[in-house]
Design a protein that fits this description.
The complex is a heterotrimer.
Chain A: H1 2-9, H2 19-56, H3 73-82, H4 94-109, H5 129-150, H6 154-185, H7 190-195, H8 212-227, H9 235-238, H10 252-277, H11 294-313, H12 321-349
Chain B: E1 10-14, E2 26-32, E3 35-42, H1 50-54, H2 59-67, H3 74-89, H4 95-124, H5 128-148, E4 157-158, E5 161-162, H6 170-193, H7 196-202, H8 210-216, H9 221-224, H10 232-235, H11 261-285, E6 304-312, E7 315-323, E8 331-335, H12 337-348, H13 354-364, H14 368-372
Antiparallel strand pairs in B: 1-2, 2-3, 4-5, 6-7, 7-8
Helix pairs in contact in B: 2-3, 3-4, 4-5, 4-11, 4-13, 5-6, 6-11, 11-13
Chain C: H1 2-24, E1 54-56, H2 66-70, E2 76-82, E3 100-108, H3 117-121, E4 127-129, E5 144-146, H4 155-165
Antiparallel strand pairs in C: 1-4, 2-3, 3-5
The chains are: A mainly alpha, B alpha+beta, C alpha+beta.
Chain lengths: 350, 373, 166
């Protein structure tokens, strides 16, 4: 953030702006940078998903648009969605209908302000960082229910309710798995969590108190797949088996916002996992002699996790709704309780 | 037994245009919340007046139309018809034709079961096995294309013989393919059949009890999945199937009650392995000869009627032909195996959740072309 | 209780196996052939027996209309008149004398079911199925291929041809 401050000082007449504007400017610039970076990343991720899925299925994927392996395919798809007719039906609740995609997007995007991309590259080092991220997950649920309700379509409502139930049920094991990491750190701040993992790969939380925190990592990974509505938990999207999903009535750019929100969520969840379990921006060797800059290491780790998410999507079938609920409440929750007890006991007595 | 429904019963339509109904099938569902009270199938969206049309075309010209009944397994559809006409006319085919017909029929069976497995995976939500199944199916279709010129609708089995002879190294290449293919079936088992999520979704739903299956007249893998070991190739052998050594794949209820969707699906996968066995034996015994030796110049069967049953990939396919001595059939009737499966589907889908309905429909492996004709 | 843990164990193992099988496929070669840039590869070319567009070498056609009779969908229209005794004799390439003059020979490929029965019934083998599959058109009538070149001489035939061409 110091570099952003220095950049801002270069603007002529910057000191003439009121105090309150000058206080918010660094954060605002940071957010713009992150939004731009996020949109570029999503472009890359959508293309990457199509290529990964194609190669797993022995096909080639996009090859035409843009020349080399179709890298501009997402741009072309986004442009197509922009040019589509924007249909807002009379029977829908217009305000809620128009607001819903943005609320879902905000739930995904607003979590980026507390993610530590580097040693000093964080927009806001909230001392309740991880709690803030968990809370934003619940905000997305509000957006989904809004989308289902405002569509005035009983199948959309049905799909929206199911998606909401899924996300809410999986937040609990996720939060409890995160507690296993918070116990050794002692603070909810994301920067503190990364600082507690400095010093090399053996200090990453995934290798501490083995295998307890590793199991917590697995539980959080599974719960986060459900948060993002990815297979095997993609009931909201695959509702088109019989009834429609919550975003059926959305066309064009509104649908694109939902789509972008899903991939932003994917990246956000991968970023949270790297911060909590995989050492964040710290590299494999000792931190003070880190050669590759922090943000690059962070990004690479997040992309590896996203590759794992995509790999899971393309190899597993879908769970039925009641099996999904069974998994969350009867499998993940008891195990995460046990892990918290184990890590807590070890932290106090060992 | 009267089922008491609590609350309102909602009528839902799973319309003819639907990605999961394997064709144009309309299901009228009466649901009580999540549970299906009744699923009434409405067919006829693909009716093309096949049986009437055949009365206006001469006997060899009917063969391209039988292809189009169950377009996923066209070789077996043609086979049933030409065997019926040959039975009516009393034509004796030579051994080369016989073994080649067996090889083609079994290759067609593999191709059809690959479609069934792949699309079933699609319905359950895993999109990868579909592509792997189709990649292997492409090799089979390449064999068909180099032999008769077409990939899907062959017109290869002619009355009294075959359209073309196979290329000289056909047998060797078929064995190479089978050697490559059998480990791929194990791969498919690892990603789909033994996958826990797939088992959870299919092994306890759609239980078709053996007595119910027999009373509805269900045949083929749907019947064998319920534990009844009945196969027309063993019961009333044709084309010399009695000299081949193969087992009937039967559902044993590995992961749930016998007769579940998983059993029906697994019977198809096990049958693919049996087909590979048969193909190996047939290629080893293939004698030289002329495939068009016994093709009659004009097909004019004597007056009479004939019923011929064969084991198509989807069940027992029957052709009933009435001839009045002219070059065109007087009446042609097809007994379609998928039609009886649709009737049993209604019985099986009472009291299941909507999400399971797709799984059950996929496990019956219907092709609307055959149901509607 | 034991079942609960057994289920979890089985679930984990089978899911990991499926994932491993899928992962290996990331490194196998794709089987896609990028049509239309690539129409044949070293592994696959169009077989010679491929049944695509029909072609009739009209110089060898003797106008017997066996093909029209064999076709199950009646897509071939053949109209021929007898050649007069005073006209010079015309032969096909394999020496058969052509007794008829074919003035209408139309194949409607929109009706054709690509069964190939017509090609087997042709006595001079002038009707073949080529391997040409790229013949999409914008107007359905462009799929009616006219092969006949001779002009008829009898007045009835001339009238028929004029009506057909109208």
């Amino acid at each position: 953030m110091e570099s952003v401050d220095q950049l801002l000082q270069l603007i002529p007449y910057y000191d003439l702006l009121p105090e309150i504007i000058r206080a918010m400017m660094p954060a605002f610039v940071g957010c713009v940078i992150i939004l731009a970076g996020l949109l570029l990343t999503i472009l890359l991720l959508v293309w990457f998903e199509r290529k990964v899925s194609a190669h797993i299925q022995d096909r080639l994927g996009p090859m035409e648009v843009g020349g080399w392996h179709g890298w501009a395919q997402t741009l072309a798809d986004g442009l197509k969605l922009l040019l589509k007719e924007d249909i807002v039906l009379d029977t829908t609740d217009r305000t809620l209908f128009k607001m819903a995609p943005f609320i879902v997007f905000i739930g995904a995007f607003a979590a980026f302000v507390v993610l530590p991309f580097g040693a000093s590259s964080i927009i806001s080092d909230l001392n309740i960082g991880i709690l803030y991220i968990l809370a934003l997950g619940s905000l997305a649920v509000v957006g989904i229910i809004m989308a289902g309700w405002a569509s005035n379509n009983k199948y959309s409502l049905y799909g929206g309710m199911r998606a909401a139930a899924q996300i809410i049920s999986y937040e609990i094991p996720a939060a409890i798995a995160i507690m296993t990491v918070i116990i050794p750190v002692g603070s909810l701040s994301m920067v503190e969590i990364v600082n507690a993992q400095q010093g090399g790969i053996q200090n990453w939380f995934i290798f501490r108190y083995p295998p307890l925190i590793f199991l917590a990592f697995v539980i959080y990974f599974i719960a986060s797949l459900a948060e993002v509505n990815r297979t095997p938990f993609d009931i909201p999207e695959a509702e088109s088996e019989l009834v429609a999903g919550y975003h059926t009535e959305y066309t064009g750019i509104r649908f694109a916002i939902f789509f972008i929100a899903e991939y932003a969520n994917m990246f956000m969840v991968a970023a949270v996992i790297t911060t909590l379990f995989l050492g964040g921006w710290t590299s494999v060797g000792p931190t003070d002699s880190q050669v590759i800059p922090g943000p690059i290491v962070f990004y690479i780790k997040a992309v590896v996790l996203i590759l794992a998410q995509m790999w899971i999507r393309w190899s597993l079938p879908r769970l039925r709704v009641d099996q999904l609920m069974y998994l969350s409440w009867k499998v993940l929750l008891p195990f995460s309780f046990a892990l918290v007890l184990g890590v807590g006991w070890l932290a106090v007595y060992a | 037994m009267e089922v008491q429904y609590s609350g309102d019963v909602m009528t839902l339509n799973m319309g003819p245009q639907h990605p999961s109904t394997h064709g144009v099938l309309r299901l009228e569902l009466k649901t009580d919340g999540e549970i299906v009270a009744d699923a009434k199938p409405h067919i006829g969206y693909l009716h093309r007046c096949f049986e009437k049309h055949c009365e206006n075309v001469d006997y060899p010209g009917v063969v391209p139309f039988t292809d189009r009944l169950d377009y996923c397994a066209a070789m077996n559809q043609e086979l049933g018809y030409v065997l019926a006409v040959e039975k009516l006319m009393g034509i004796k085919i030579n051994d080369r034709v016989r073994y080649l017909r067996v090889i083609m029929a079994e290759l067609g069976r593999i191709a059809s079961h690959l479609i069934a497995a792949g699309t079933y995976g699609n319905d359950i939500g895993t999109f990868t096995p579909f592509w792997w199944c189709f990649r292997d199916r492409e090799t089979i279709l390449d064999f068909f294309e180099e032999t008769c010129g077409a990939r899907l609708l062959y017109n290869y089995n002619w009355i009294g013989g075959l359209m073309h002879d196979v290329k000289p190294d056909f047998g060797k290449r078929v064995i190479e393919f089978i050697d490559y293919f059998e480990p791929q079936v194990d791969n498919l088992n690892k990603i789909l059949s033994d996958n826990y999520i797939f088992i959870k979704r299919t092994a306890n739903v759609g239980i078709l009890k053996p007595e119910v299956a027999v009373s509805y007249g269900v045949t083929g893998p749907n019947l064998r999945g319920s534990g009844v070991a009945f196969d027309v190739r063993k019961d009333e052998p044709y084309l010399g199937y009695e000299e081949f050594d193969f087992d009937i794949a039967v559902g044993k209820g590995d992961y749930g009650p016998v007769g579940s969707c998983w059993d029906r699906y697994m019977v198809r996968i096990r049958e693919v392995k049996e087909c590979c066995k048969i193909i190996r034996q047939a290629v080893a015994k293939l004698p030289p000869g002329d495939v068009r030796e016994t093709v009659p110049k004009r097909v004019k069967p004597p007056k009479g009627d004939v019923y011929m049953r064969t084991e198509a990939p989807r069940g027992e396919l029957g052709y009933y032909i009435v001839s009045d001595g002219s070059p065109k059939p007087y009446r042609l009737k097809v007994k379609s195996p998928c039609f009886t499966a649709m009737s049993a589907f209604r019985e099986v889908s009472r009291g299941v959740m909507i999400a399971d309905l797709i799984a059950i429909l996929g496990s019956f492996d219907i092709v609307l072309g055959e149901i509607d004709r | 209780m034991v079942e609960y843990f057994r289920d979890i164990w089985l679930g984990t193992i089978t899911i990991l196996k499926s994932m491993w099988v899928a992962f290996k496929h990331l490194f196998t070669r794709s089987v896609t052939m990028q049509y239309p840039r690539v129409k044949s590869t070293a592994e696959w070319t169009m077989p010679e027996r491929a049944r695509m567009k029909l072609f009739n070498k009209i110089e060898d056609c003797i106008g017997c209309s066996q093909c029209a009779r064999a076709c199950p969908t009646e897509c071939i229209t053949v109209k021929a008149e007898k050649r007069g005794k005073e006209e010079p004799e015309v032969f096909t390439s394999n020496g058969t004398a052509m007794k008829m003059r074919t003035y209408i020979y139309d194949i409607d490929m929109t009706l054709c079911c690509y069964c190939g029965l017509c090609t087997f019934s042709c006595p001079t083998e002038c009707l073949v199925m080529t391997g040409d599959y790229e013949y999409s058109v914008y107007d359905k009538n462009d799929h009616i291929f006219h092969f006949a070149k001779d002009k008829p001489l009898t007045p009835k035939a001339i009238e028929e041809l004029a009506k057909a061409n109208a």
